[in-house]
Structure formats: C-alpha cells, structure tokens
Amino acid sequence: MYARAVEEAGIRLRNLRREEWEDFALAAVAMVLALVAAEAVHELAVPLLLGGLAGMGLGVRALWRRWDLVERLSEETDAHAISEVFDYAARDATLSRRRGYALMIRRTIRERSPYDPRIACVADDFEALASGLEDASLVFQPACAVKCRHLLTEPTESVLFDPTAPTEDLLASIRRIRVGLTPAT
After folding, report:
1. Which residue among 57, 84, 111 closes a domain?
2. Chain-wide mean pLDDT for the chain?
3. Phi, psi angles (nearest 5°) of residue 161
C-alpha cells in the first residue's frame, strides 16, 4: 500500500466513524421526540418513530462499512499505521487466539487429510505452523495473524476450503503465514 492510500483509508475510517455517530445521534433524538409526541401531538409520533428507525438503519450501515474497511485493511502491513486497523489485527496475534488456530489446524489435519490429498501433502508444514503458533517465545505479526484467520475460517475465500485450488497455493499460503512468526526481541 502506498502512503497516500493509507492516508486516504484513515480519512475514510474517520468519516465513517463520524457518519455513524451522527446517524445514531439523530436516530436517538427522533426516538425521544417520538415518545414525547406520543403524549402530546399524536400525529407526529409515527413519522418521528419511522425517522428514528431509518436513522438507526443508516447508523448500522455506516458501522458495517467501517468494520468492512478495517477488516480489508487488516491484512495490509502498511495500513497498520492506522491505530484502529492495527488494534483490530493485533487481536488475532494474541497467544490465546494463536492456540485456537493451532487447534483448528490440527483438527483439519486429523479430519481432512484422509480424504483430501492436498492436506496430506502439506501436513508437515501445517503442523510446523501449529507448533509455531503455540510457541510463546515467538511473536506473530498481526497481518500474518489475520491471514491465518482467513485461511482457517473463510470458506468462500480460503484455498484451504477450495478443493480445486492447487496444493502449491495452499503451501504458499501456509509459508506466508509462517514468515510472520519471529523470535521475540
């Protein structure tokens, strides 16, 4: 990612956060006014309630768009200059999550290698990744941690779940993730 693209992404995230707050605040005001109108001016209660619900919908839309952008940026190391993106990606690099990923890898090897020759071919590399994930003396780079999560949990995007994907692609994904495991300094 270029510095300009990171800067633009940061601006976009701030704008989405502001949009989210504005929409939720407007929705809250409309809901309160709807409650007041229900007692005082009955004809305004329903339109204000509908306006509040619409505002809530817009707030949820902004929230979803911001989350989606953070999710997409989390695999980009350069985008970790944005604190929100770094914080999101760093959650996947915690030791407890790493241990969970190691369990998922071992379960995948155990359950799928008998009938998926790709898994059987990469089992040693996969096991090495699982061992590295469990090693507390290693630091896991957040971008690689996100790639690991995507490999293990995204059935529509991951080469692990695509039976037509070549074994070489799966092996390359595993090795790209393992590069992110480095000795603590």
Report:
1. 84
2. 92
3. -95, -5
Tokens representing residue 51 in the block: 């306006």
Number of structural domains, the chain? 2
The helix or strand, by DSSP H or E, that contains position 81, with its residue range, turns out to be none
pLDDT, tens only, 24-67: 999 999 999 999 988 888 888 899 999 999 999 999 999 999 99
The sign one gets for the Cα dihedral 160, 164, 167, 168 is: negative
Q: How far is CA 141 from the centre of its chain?
A: 15
Identify the H or E element spanning 182: strand 181-183
Name residue, tokens 């003396």.
137
Residue where one domain finishes, among candidates 84, 115, 135 = 84
Task: Return the structure tokens found at 93.
Answer: 């690099």
Number of C-beta neighbours around residue 77 at 10 A: 15
Rounded to whole angstroms, the maximal C-alpha distance in the chain is 73
Structural domain boundaries, residue 141 = 92-183
Amino acid making up residue 7: E
The verdict on 72 and 46 lying in the same domain is yes
Q: Let me know whether 98 and 77 are in one domain.
A: no
- Is residue 119 located within the same domain as residue 75? no
CA 126 from chain centre, in angstroms, equals: 22
